[in-house]
Amino acid sequence: MWKKKKGRKFSRKTDQRRALLRSLAEALFIKGKVRTTEAKAKETAILAEKLITRGKKGDLSASRYLAIYFNKDLVKKIMKETAPKYKERKGGYTRVTKLEPRKSDAAKMAIVELIK
Predict the structure, then answer these.
(1) CATH no. for residue 31?
(2) Is residue 6 part of a domain?
(3) How far apart are CA 97 and CA 109, in angstroms?
(4) How many structural domains comprise the chain?
(5) In angstroms, what CA-CA distances link 68 with 37, 60, 75, 83, 85?
């Protein structure tokens, strides 16, 4: 029996989809919140949760894993500033807030943000 694979495809090839999510996650960690479509926001939140959890470990392995996604400066920011804020929290580092549809094409919009 066919099983559904998790994750959304966004009508993109694998490398384009990874680049899209990587850039949205980068913007999320730099700015603290990002306004995008609802589906992209949900996928970005999933990726950001995994990256913060990995950053909470704070070891060499975690920094090398984060270096796959981001440059050195952003890896340091995640490891030194972002992840320690959530040390006592066991998950739920992001919030997805739904907005009104976009006027041009009526796409469902949302804001994904880091919880303080």
Answers:
(1) 3.90.1030.10
(2) no
(3) 9
(4) 1
(5) 25, 13, 10, 17, 22
Mean pLDDT of the chain: 96
C-alpha 18/C-alpha 35 separation (Å) is 18
Confidence band (pLDDT; 50, 70, 90) for 1? confident
How many Å apart are CA 11 and CA 70, to the nearest integer? 24
Q: Which domain holds residue 74?
A: 15-114
- Distance CA(65)–CA(67), nearest Å, equals 5
Is 89 among the domain residues?
Answer: yes
pLDDT in tens, 65-94: 999 999 999 999 999 999 999 999 999 999
Q: How many CA atoms lie within 13 A of 56 on its CB side?
A: 14
Strands 109-114 and 94-98: antiparallel
Question: What residues pair up with 36 in beta bridges, in sequence order?
Answer: 110
pTM: 0.92
Asked if 74 and 30 count as a contact pair (C-beta separation under 8 A), the reply is yes
